[in-house]
């Protein structure tokens, strides 16, 4: 029996690497795409904003499903390059949806909890809750969701929260806190957000869930399955509390890190207070939503 084939965009990124690994370990035929860090033949170089290039890769690879991880994920970089962000997060996603629809390929679009405004008292958010992004990054991901669902009846959205996992510390807003705790720059004081609630989730867990989604949506009629899914850890904490937990796990002091409980401490890019995602839709599909222990992983 031939292996099912999956194409992973953004396969060189924090999440994409784990997705490639999870599918590979599950016996799938896995092809990844990247751009600046592409490494053929396993990781193909692909400009996902270029229609001709996208069509060629889809016709050559002929995947049963695409896991679309490629995106501009930093709210700060999104705000500084709005045109480039819209091209990647919205237009390229729509292009993929249109081309996969024409070939009967399932597309899984990775989205974010930032599609919700996260006002106090609003969480947890169900998959059908009204979206209201608090910043430009969230707007582009919300617009990407709308675009792929409209373009393909085989497109499904998976919203995820703040991610951490194996890789360079700079790749994750969680991992990079390790550098802050080490304080190699010797700062006397570092203000740390102690207001917004986060739910740090490991990329290995997300990759496992994506593999389970792929099994489900390629073995059943995807047009009759939910179009929007959500996955999140239940680990509720602020960034300051994440620092405390990391410091304890690593056996490091953090006297230089000061809790900042000011509402919206970075007004240039508004962050939500609490965007906790309900995982009910995944549970209804029979998919395991258990996540690994935060401290134990480190």
Automatic annotation (TrEMBL):
Name this protein carries in UniProt: RmlD-like substrate binding domain-containing protein
Q: Which GO terms describe its biological process?
A: S-adenosylmethionine biosynthetic process
Species the sequence originates in:
Arthrobotrys oligospora (strain ATCC 24927 / CBS 115.81 / DSM 1491) (Nematode-trapping fungus)
Q: Name the Pfam families for this protein.
A: RmlD_sub_bind (PF04321)
Q: Which residues form the RmlD-like substrate binding domain?
A: 5-287
Of the GO CC terms on this record, one is: methionine adenosyltransferase complex
Q: Which GO terms describe its molecular function?
A: methionine adenosyltransferase regulator activity
């Amino acid at each position: 029996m031939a292996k099912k084939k999956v194409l992973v965009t953004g396969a060189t990124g924090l999440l994409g690497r784990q997705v490639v690994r999870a599918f590979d370990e599950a016996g799938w035929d896995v092809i990844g795409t990247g751009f600046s860090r592409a490494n053929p033949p396993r990781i193909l170089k692909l400009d996902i904003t270029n229609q001709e290039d996208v069509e060629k890769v889809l016709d050559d690879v002929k995947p049963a499903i695409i896991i679309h991880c490629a995106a501009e994920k930093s709210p700060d970089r999104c705000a500084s390059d709005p045109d480039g962000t819209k091209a990647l997060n919205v237009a390229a996603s729509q292009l993929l949806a249109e081309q996969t629809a024409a070939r009967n390929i399932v597309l899984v679009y990775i989205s974010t909890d930032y599609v919700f405004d996260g006002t106090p008292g609003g969480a947890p958010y169900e998959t059908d809750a009204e979206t209201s992004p608090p910043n430009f990054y969230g707007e582009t991901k919300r617009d990407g969701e709308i675009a792929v669902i409209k373009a393909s009846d085989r497109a499904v959205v998976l919203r995820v929260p703040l991610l951490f996992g194996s890789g360079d510390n700079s790749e994750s807003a969680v991992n990079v806190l390790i550098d802050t705790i080490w304080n190699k720059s010797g700062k006397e004081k570092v203000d740390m957000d102690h207001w917004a609630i986060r739910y740090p989730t490991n990329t290995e867990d997300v990759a496992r869930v994506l593999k389970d989604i792929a099994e489900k949506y390629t073995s059943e009629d995807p047009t009759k399955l939910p179009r929007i899914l959500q996955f999140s850890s239940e680990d509720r904490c602020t960034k300051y509390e994440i620092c405390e937990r990391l410091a304890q796990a690593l056996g490091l002091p953090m006297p230089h890190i000061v809790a900042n409980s000011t509402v919206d401490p970075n007004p240039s890019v508004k962050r939500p207070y609490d965007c906790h995602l309900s995982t009910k839709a995944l549970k209804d599909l029979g998919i395991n939503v258990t996540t690994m222990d935060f401290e134990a992983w480190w």
